[in-house]
Amino acid sequence: MEKHDGGPVALVRAALVEAGVGDTVRTFSAGVPTAAAAAQALECDLAAITNSLIFDVGGEPLLILASGAARVDTALVAARLGTGKIHRASPAFVLDHTGQKVGGVAPVGHPKRIRTLLDETLQAHGLLWAGAGDHNSMFSITYQDLLRITGALELAVR
C-alpha cells in the first residue's frame, strides 16, 4: 500500500478527515476499478463493496451508493422518488459533477454535494469499502458513518 497524494484522492481524504471518520484510504498498485476487483484485493465479501453510481435525472446528478453484489433497479428507484426516468450518466457527466472518473467515484470529495441514496442492504456489513476517487484507491467506513457524511436517503434500490 502506498499513499496517493493530489487530485481526487486528496479531496476524498480531506472530506473523510473533515467529517471526523479519519483517513482510511488504501491504494493498490494493481488497481480496483470494479467491485469484484476491490473485493478480491481487500479479501472481503463483494456485498460489502459500496459502488458509487452516478445517474442523470433530468440533467441533475443522483448518486446511488449500492452494494457491489446488486444491480440497481432504476425503475423502482424512480417510482420511489417520484422522478422521471433515471439514466446511467455518461463518463463526461460523471467527471463534470464529481471531479472523478467512472470506476473510481467516491461517495464524497465532489465539488458540491450531490443528492445521494444509500442502499439499505449495506447495513448488513460491519465494515464497508468504497471508491476513494481513482481506480486504485478504496476507503473503509461503517454504514452509519457513510449515511451521516453523505446525508443520503436510505432506500431499497433493488
In the CATH hierarchy, what is the superfamily? YbaK/aminoacyl-tRNA synthetase-associated domain
Number of domains: 1
Give the percentage of residues in beta strands.
15-25%
User: What's the multimeric state?
Assistant: single chain
Mean pLDDT figure: 93
User: What is the string of helix and strand elements?
Assistant: HEHEEHEHEEEHE
CATH fold assignment: YbaK protein
Counting DSSP H or I runs of 4 or more residues, the number of helices is: 5
Named at the architecture level, the CATH assignment is Alpha-Beta Complex
Instruction: Give the class-level CATH name.
Output: Alpha Beta
The first-to-last residue Cα distance is: 34 Å
Helix-and-strand structural type: alpha/beta
Radius of gyration: 14 Å
Task: Report the sheet with the most strands, covering strand number, pairing sense and barrel closure.
Answer: 8 strands, mixed
Give the helix level as a range of percent. Answer: 25-40%
Shape summary:
globular
Total strand segments:
8
- Low-confidence segments: none
Summary, kept brief:
The protein is of the alpha/beta class and 158 residues long. It has helices spanning 7-18, 35-42, 74-81, 91-98, 143-150; strands at residues 25-27, 49-57, 60-67, 87-88, 115-119, 128-131, 137-141, 153-155.
Describe this structure in words.
The chain is an alpha/beta fold and 158 residues long. It has one domain: Alpha-Beta Complex (YbaK protein), CATH 3.90.960. 28% of the residues lie in helices and 25% in strands. The chain is built from 5 helices and 8 strands; from the N terminus they run H-E-H-E-E-H-E-H-E-E-E-H-E. The protein has helices at 7-18, 35-42, 74-81, 91-98, 143-150; strands spanning 25-27, 49-57, 60-67, 87-88, 115-119, 128-131, 137-141, 153-155. Strands 1, 2, 3, 4, 5, 6, 7 and 8 form an 8-stranded mixed sheet that branches. Strand 2 (49-57) and strand 3 (60-67) form a beta hairpin. The protein is globular, with a radius of gyration of 14 Å. The model has no long low-confidence stretch (mean pLDDT 93). Pfam families: tRNA_edit (PF04073). This is Prolyl-tRNA editing enzyme YbaK/EbsC (Cys-tRNA(Pro) deacylase). Residues 31-148 form the YbaK/aminoacyl-tRNA synthetase-associated domain.
